[in-house]
Design a protein that fits this description.
Blueprint lengths: L1 H68 L14 E6 L5 E10 L8 E9 L7 E8 L6 E5 L3 E3 L4 E2 L2 E4 L3 E3 L2 E2 L3 E3 L3 E4 L8 E4 L1 E2 L8 E2 L9 H14 L3 E3 L6 E7 L10 E17 L3 E19 L5 E4 L3 E7 L2 E6 L12 E9 L7 E6 L3 E3 L6 E10 L4 E2 L7 E13 L6 E3 L5 E12 L18 E8 L4
């Protein structure tokens, strides 16, 4: 009897253990199945979310393409207010979603528009995804240096920002951004330390050469003429237009009035009645008797900064002073002629009260942007300087050596630019001993008013944004 009872107890024990094992296995199996289901759900969710984002990107790319074929149409060809809805199909042509475009046209000053593209799937498995982008035709102000001629950067020089030349580049300095040339090869002359040798579009001991790219498309300096003509029109309707002085030109003194508010800014304008004359030499012009140094002036008027930021003067201009504004100052005469092309002279320091992107100055000259003989020992220039037909330069004044020149902005020069001159041994013989050039990074997104542009529409900045219910 005892043995039978023991067997029964053992049998019950085995059944209990078996049931426990089965229960545990069931729980584990159920958990595994649930885990697989969750993994599969999350995988589909992730895939659907990526698909919705891809649809949003497609909408943005579509409208960028559309603008480059219809640059003045910010209503998607409808002549109506948006939003604008487009179906999105898969590879088989089946509609699986749509993108919705909300478009904000550019303002008159910046030329930058905003496109918001929302992508959504038709089955609503995931929330819509949206991308918002600033788009515009890139301003020439995106370049730290831009030139239409061959250029040589020495071993002590550095480029902070993009550099492009339509000619060849000998680069012995250092760079931190793209260096591009429109030439595959060019003939390097004696002025750049060569003996009329054929060289690659970019060459030299500087670098890093991973930033070098050539050949690329050339920049059309002739198009700037049309931009100058447009600036003249804008100046007569909302800006400041000043006709020829029948003297030597005008001195423009920027006035910030001691505040960081552009609304408080003004500029004093003087007629230049007498000048000093000094002989200066440039590579393309030889000896020229420049009258770039002011002797006497006569007060003309004080102007409030114009609402559209455009100042156009049909004469030579001298510029100096401090500003809190965004302003473009242009010197030109139409119809164009070699004898009447206008230049701009840096009369003294040009500075911003803050380097935060809220203030900018562009100086656009039909001919040269020059620094005169009697310039300050230490000169500071906060501005983008553009010389359409001539050059940004301090001519060779036969031994006039100054201390330092500091620029914050950019240099765009049709012909060869320089702030100093050295002999064949590399010894300074004229100009500024120390040069420091810094690119203003804010100019890429907030260039000076109506600054010339080049190329096609492109995305300047983008971010993914949350879609509100």
């Amino acid at each position: 009897m005892q043995s039978n009872t023991s067997a029964k107890h053992e049998g019950g024990y085995v059944v209990f253990v078996t049931l426990a094992i089965v229960t545990v296995l069931f729980i584990l199996t159920a958990g595994l199945v649930k885990s697989v289901e969750n993994e599969n759900w999350f995988s589909h969710q992730e895939g659907d979310t990526l698909q919705a984002t891809h649809i949003a990107e497609s909408g943005l790319n579509y409208y960028l393409w559309y603008l480059n074929h219809h640059p003045d149409d910010w209503q998607d060809g409808t002549e109506d207010v948006g939003p604008y809805i487009h179906d999105y199909t898969d590879a088989d042509g089946t509609v699986i979603g749509r993108f919705i475009l909300d478009i904000t046209p550019p303002d008159a000053e910046s030329g930058i528009g905003v496109i918001r593209s929302t992508g959504e799937l038709l089955d609503d498995r995931v929330p819509p995804r949206a991308i918002e982008a600033q788009v515009g035709v890139p301003s020439l102000a995106k370049y730290a240096f831009l030139t239409n001629s061959d250029v040589w950067f020495g071993s002590t020089e550095s480029v902070d920002g993009k550099l492009h030349s339509n000619g060849g580049i000998r680069f012995d300095g250092t760079c931190n951004d793209l260096i591009t040339s429109a030439k595959e090869t060019y003939v390097c002359g004696t002025q750049h330390g060569c003996a009329d040798e054929t060289k690659p579009g970019i060459w030299g001991t500087g670098g890093p050469d991973s930033f070098w790219s050539f050949p690329v498309a050339a920049i059309d300096f002739d198009q700037i003429s049309g931009d100058l003509s447009e600036l003249q029109t804008l100046a007569t309707s909302g800006g400041i237009f000043i006709d020829t002085s029948n003297k030597y030109g005008y001195l423009v003194q920027l006035q910030s009035n001691g505040t960081d508010t552009a609304a408080d800014d003004s500029m004093d304008v003087y007629t230049v009645t007498k000048t000093y004359q000094y002989t200066g030499w440039t590579e393309d012009g030889g000896d020229i008797k420049y009258r770039d140094d002011i002797k006497e002036t006569s007060f003309l008027a004080t102007y409030a900064m114009p609402s559209n930021g455009i100042v156009f003067i049909d004469d030579q201009i001298w510029v100096k002073g401090e500003t809190s504004s965004q302003v473009t100052i242009a010197a030109a005469h139409f119809p164009e002629s070699t004898n009447t092309n206008r230049s701009i002279v840096i009369a003294d320091d040009i500075t911003y009260r803050q380097h935060d992107g809220s203030m900018s100055v562009s100086l656009i000259a039909q001919e040269d942007v020059r620094v005169g003989y009697d310039s300050p020992q230490d000169l500071e220039i906060d501005a983008v300087m553009l010389a359409q037909r001539g050059k940004v330069i301090r001519p060779y004044y036969y031994g006039s050596i100054k201390n330092s020149i500091t620029t914050y902005g950019g240099v765009i020069s049709n012909k060869t630019w320089t702030w100093n001159w050295v002999n064949q041994w590399g010894t300074l013989i004229d100009g500024y001993r120390y040069t420091s050039s810094s690119y203003d990074p804010h100019l890429l997104y907030t260039p000076p008013p109506h600054f010339p542009t080049t190329g096609e529409f492109e995305i300047l900045y983008w971010e993914e944004v949350i879609v509100e219910d």
